[in-house]
């Protein structure tokens, strides 16, 4: 749900295990392999249970096995996993009817159909039957994009072609996915420790671990970094942002300057934990952003009002004390608003929650195209671990990419919506910045005109000029203060920067959409488009946050 409570959504504790391995003719003892897989899956489940008991996660989800359901090790692992109550994600290189042509007999095809029906979700790729090795290679890559650990039933021999067990193992090593190999007789287990610090490694270069350390390895993979001192890691300790003085100032300014409302794209109803988490953080980011920006506007407005009251006091005569008292109240309100905004961390909450929301948005889009993990999430700390945890617990939806021309519509439509929203935002923010700038110019022009008129009166009508010197003083002091406040609001909120970033994102997404429409559409092309769109949407999140952190809520002066 959106940010309507104190507790941010906790990610369910999920885990993905990939299986690759030999066909039946190279399996020495299937029953021993099944027993070994039972033992390995049990180690994963125990490690997850211990981690769940430590807190920081929501309800634990059963581990998910990702399998191509080929004859041999793939199906053996699927049977063991289902018997243990695990879930199954099937990645098929071809449509099922085509894929069945690879199987030995009717009994094998019936076994395949039985396992396929038991799968929680199924991803069907657009493999070409005339290039089967390439199709199996693509299936292996999609499998790796949805797992945290790879188990390979492998004899240690070189691969017999593209897309084989050895090739998937080497790709897992390059991606930093830990690998557990099981010998074809089921008697030997070897663990190779992959990790983000070991990217681009060869399998043979990865350090080995004994089987006894598997549970420790799993615990490391799902660990959440210490969140002490991290605003989002504390999960809104004081609840969702509470607004202070003039909390609607930002929305009011947008309307006055022709910028419309401050709302973003209306999200679709939450269908799963990943979407629900995005909606919560998106709403939290909107609330915190409006609170911070409103506080900035109020601060500059109060500072300008204090100067206007001081200037107006020269015209007040015996009521000067009223102006002075109002000036004191104005300054006290300015101090109170600043202190309140700092204590409630509106800016920090806005920056962190927007970063989390954008990463979750991208993860939600990629899920439509069977991309369950994506590299380089967040800052490598709490944010990245939090988002990764949600992607682990949200397996890809069932999707048929065997006809790419009609597949991926949800992801494409969401990218198109983002392109349209960013294009509209760029126009709105540019218009707001332009009108605020013109407002300041008009005020300074009014001061200049008043001074010129007064000088003319001083030369031609000295008496009248003398009578107007105090009003001129009030105008000369008050209007520039208001103009300067408008400039400060424009700079701190950075309307021009918002417009430029939104324009850049809209232009990049539109270009990607045009390229997708112009080129032959394949499953690989759709996934490539989705990755590129994701990169475009989050490319400048880190730089934006760095710039925004330098614009703190402060007393103007």
Helix share, percent? 55-70%
Order of helices and strands: EHEHEHHEHEHEEEHHHHHHEHHHHHH
Low-confidence stretches: 1-5, 228-245
Looking across the biggest beta sheet, what order are the strands in?
8-7-6-5-1-2-3-4-9
The helix count comes to: 18
Largest sheet data: 9 strands, mixed
The class by helix and strand makeup works out as: alpha/beta
Instruction: Please report which band the strand proportion falls in: under 5%, 5-15%, 15-25%, 25-35%, 35-45% or over 45%.
Output: 5-15%
* Mean pLDDT across residues: 86
What gross morphology would you assign? elongated
For the secondary structure, the number of strands is 9
Q: Mind telling me the C-alpha Rg?
A: 31 Å
Intertermini distance: 41 Å
What oligomeric assembly is this protein in? Answer: single chain
Total of domains: 2
What does this structure look like?
The protein has 557 residues and is α/β, with parallel strands linked by helices. The protein folds into two domains: 206 residues, Rossmann fold (3-Layer(aba) Sandwich); 294 residues, no CATH class. The protein has 18 helices and nine strands. The longest helix has 52 residues.
Sum this structure up briefly.
The chain has 557 residues and is of the alpha/beta class.
């Amino acid at each position: 749900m959106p940010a309507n409570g104190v507790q941010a959504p906790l990610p369910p504790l999920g885990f993905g295990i990939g299986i690759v391995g030999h066909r039946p003719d190279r399996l020495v003892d299937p029953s021993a392999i099944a027993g070994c897989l039972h033992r390995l899956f049990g180690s994963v489940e125990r490690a997850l249970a211990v981690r769940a008991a430590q807190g920081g996660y929501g309800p634990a989800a059963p581990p998910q096995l990702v399998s191509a359901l080929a004859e041999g090790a793939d199906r053996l692992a699927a049977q063991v996993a289902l018997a243990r109550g695990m879930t199954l994600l099937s990645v098929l290189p071809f449509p099922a009817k085509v894929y069945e042509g690879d199987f030995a007999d009717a009994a094998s095809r019936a076994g395949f159909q039985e396992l396929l029906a038991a799968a929680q979700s199924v991803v069907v790729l657009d493999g070409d039957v005339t290039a089967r090795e390439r199709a199996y290679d693509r299936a292996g890559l999609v499998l790796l994009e949805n797992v945290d650990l790879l188990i390979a039933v492998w004899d240690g021999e070189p691969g017999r072609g593209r897309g084989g067990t050895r090739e998937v193992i080497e790709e897992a090593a390059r991606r930093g996915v830990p690998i557990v190999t099981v010998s074809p007789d089921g008697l030997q287990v070897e663990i190779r420790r992959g990790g983000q610090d070991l990217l681009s490694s060869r399998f043979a270069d990865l350090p080995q671990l004994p089987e006894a350390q598997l549970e420790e390895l799993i615990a490391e993979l799902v660990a959440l970094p210490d969140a002490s001192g991290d605003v989002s890691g504390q999960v809104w300790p004081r609840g969702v942002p509470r607004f202070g003085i003039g909390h609607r100032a930002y929305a009011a300014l947008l309307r006055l300057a022709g910028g419309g409302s401050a709302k973003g794209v209306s999200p679709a109803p939450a269908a799963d934990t990943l979407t629900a988490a995005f909606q919560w953080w998106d709403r939290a980011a909107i609330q915190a952003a409006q609170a911070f920006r409103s506080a900035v506007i109020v601060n500059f407005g109060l500072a300008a009002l204090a100067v206007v009251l001081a200037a107006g006091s020269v015209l007040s005569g015996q009521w000067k004390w009223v102006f002075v008292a109002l000036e004191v109240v104005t300054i006290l309100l300015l101090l109170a608003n600043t202190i309140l905004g700092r204590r409630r961390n509106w800016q920090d909450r806005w920056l962190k929650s927007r970063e989390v929301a954008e990463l979750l948005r991208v993860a939600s889009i990629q899920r439509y195209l069977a991309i369950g993990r994506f590299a380089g999430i967040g800052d490598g700390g709490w944010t990245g671990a939090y988002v990764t945890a949600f992607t682990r617990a949200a397996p890809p939806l069932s999707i048929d990419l065997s006809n790419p021309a009609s597949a991926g519509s949800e992801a494409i439509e969401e990218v198109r919506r983002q392109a349209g929203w960013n294009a509209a935002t760029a126009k709105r923010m540019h218009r707001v910045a332009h009108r605020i700038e013109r407002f300041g110019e008009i005020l300074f022009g009014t001061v200049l005109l008043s001074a010129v008129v007064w000088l003319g009166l001083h030369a031609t009508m000295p008496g009248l000029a003398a009578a107007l010197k105090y009003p001129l003083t009030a105008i000369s002091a008050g209007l520039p203060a208001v103009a300067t406040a408008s400039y400060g609001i424009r700079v701190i909120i950075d309307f021009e920067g918002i417009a430029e970033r939104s324009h850049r994102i809209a232009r990049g997404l539109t270009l990607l959409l045009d390229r997708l429409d112009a080129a032959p559409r394949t499953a690989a092309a759709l996934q490539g488009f989705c990755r590129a769109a994701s990169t475009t949407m989050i490319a400048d999140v880190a730089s934006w946050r760095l710039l925004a952190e330098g614009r703190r809520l402060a007393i103007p002066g």
